[in-house]
Amino acid sequence: MKILIATANAHKVGEIREILADFPIELCDLRDFPPVAAPDETGLTYAENALLKARFYAAHTGLPALSDDSGLEVDALDGAPGLYSARFGGEDMPHSQKILRVLDLLQQQPERPRSARFRCCCVLLDPNTGQVWTEEATCEGTIASAPSGEQGFGYDPIFLVDPVRSMADLSASEKHAISHRGQALRGLLGQLYPHLSTARA
Q1: What's the pTM value of the predicted model, to 2 decimals?
Q2: What CATH architecture applies to the domain 2-192?
Q3: What's the number of CA atoms in the CB half-sphere (13 Å) around residue 186?
């Protein structure tokens, strides 16, 4: 099976390739096709945004499209940045600044817990049949007082998965084993290949 990784985010493309390396599928990405402007993410849920992107890129390429939408949900910020994590503070703001914005908002309410989670919804759309597969997963943690680690991307440096390590402190294999994206992707492809082991060493 040939599947398009339906995102222009190079970090996501790399992670998806690593997570799904053990599945019997051929993955390609948008670099293999003529460029096209990304669709506006107007959905009101992660699932709606993921499906919107899958439909758009499947129509553009004619291939089954694998897309995801994800975000960081901080309880003390009433779930923000959540669905708007990539646009928090503006799409052009670097993630280092978005991280500082989250930390600054938390410093303004030190009495509230720093519990948080990453949430990811993955969608696979087959344009030939119209069939859609969906899987959602979360990874629970807390927000650190300062960034730590050089791995990963996005909000990984402030997301603590244990008392001392952030997501950005983990190796790629450690991260993929527990991450929201790793869980969602393995669950999604597990729907197609239930006879295969979805565990990644």
Answers
A1: 0.91
A2: Alpha-Beta Complex (3.90)
A3: 20
Axis-axis angle for helices 10-19, 180-192 (nearest 10): 50
Q: Which of 69, 78, 104, 156 is catalytic?
A: 69
pLDDT attached to residue 195: 39
CA distance 162 to 8: 31
The rounded average pLDDT for each run of 10 residues, N- to C-terminus, in the chain (201 residues) is 92 94 92 92 96 96 96 97 92 92 95 96 94 96 96 95 96 96 94 52 29
Active-site annotation holds for 69: yes
- Interatomic CA distance for residues 43 and 173, integer angstroms: 31
Q: Domain map of the chain by residue range?
A: 2-192
Residue 76 to residues 27, 72, 87, 99, 180, Cα–Cα distance (Å): 38, 12, 19, 15, 20
